From TrEMBL:
<dbReference type="GO" id="GO:0032259">
    <property type="term" value="P:methylation"/>
</dbReference>
<keyword id="KW-0489">Methyltransferase</keyword>
<dbReference type="InterPro" id="IPR029063">
    <property type="entry name" value="SAM-dependent_MTases_sf"/>
</dbReference>
<dbReference type="GO" id="GO:0008168">
    <property type="term" value="F:methyltransferase activity"/>
</dbReference>
<dbReference type="Pfam" id="PF13489">
    <property type="entry name" value="Methyltransf_23"/>
</dbReference>
<protein>
    <submittedName>
        <fullName>Methyltransferase domain-containing protein</fullName>
    </submittedName>
</protein>
<keyword id="KW-0808">Transferase</keyword>
Amino acid sequence: MLKYAGVAAASKGFSASAPGRRLYRRLGNVALERSRRAEGLPQRYLDRAERLLALCETYDVLAPGDRVLELGTGWVHWEATVLALHHDVSVTLFDVCDNRLLGAYRTYLAGYRAHLAAAPDGDGTRRALDRLDAALAADDFAGIYRVLGFDHVIEPSGHLDGLDAGAYALEVSADVLEHVPAGMLAEYLDEAHALLRPGGHAIHQIDLADHYHYFDPSMSPKHYYRYSDTTWRRWFENDVQYFNRVQRPEWRALFAGAGFGMVEDDDRSLPPEELTRLDAAPTAAPFDALSDEDRACLQMLTVHAA
């Protein structure tokens, strides 16, 4: 618990001023660059690539020449990269700040090339390998973007209304929507829906876990259930490690309210022993009204149609 509380306190400290937020981002990106280059391409990223490509095939999401929007591309633009390697599409990368890590990105590109090179050959694999070789030969992000057909947009407000309405066949994100301020979500999803063309799709992976748990795994992945909204805002909520604590029923209502039609909802939940651990302590409002199934939900993978 001390580490959990310490990370929260430090995060609130960094959030107290603009210089503190900039310092946090700079220090964090230096550490992430080193760790990601040392670790190489994780298996979970390969799993995400396989799952995304399978969903696009299952629902016939993309055709040659289509436009894709990745929301919150972060350090390595992973979903956008996978789609651009395997489909003839152009991609808009949308971020609220510049967190790009060139060394980590090149490490992931090289790792994915090695993965594909070991797979059975085919037209799609050959095309992806050729594009990977060209991207790895580029000197900077601009060169990689020319190869992959990327346009990078940074909008600090987070609003999407500056993009082309009705232009995109697919919107995609991974572990991003939980960082959108809760009070902005309804408007944000309205804007996202307006960007899709008729018949377009949205594929989102949403992480519902307590993000301080990643710093202190001794705590429950849903430890934040212990705290009311007032307590959470006072002691834990901050700008540099913000996550909105929105739960599965709310997400479903928000998507429906924005006009999205559910196509698929595949969730990952707490294992039974963690749910038992969660039940051992009181749950604060508003989470005490959730069903056991909703309380246990750790991750949502949603596919919606416009």
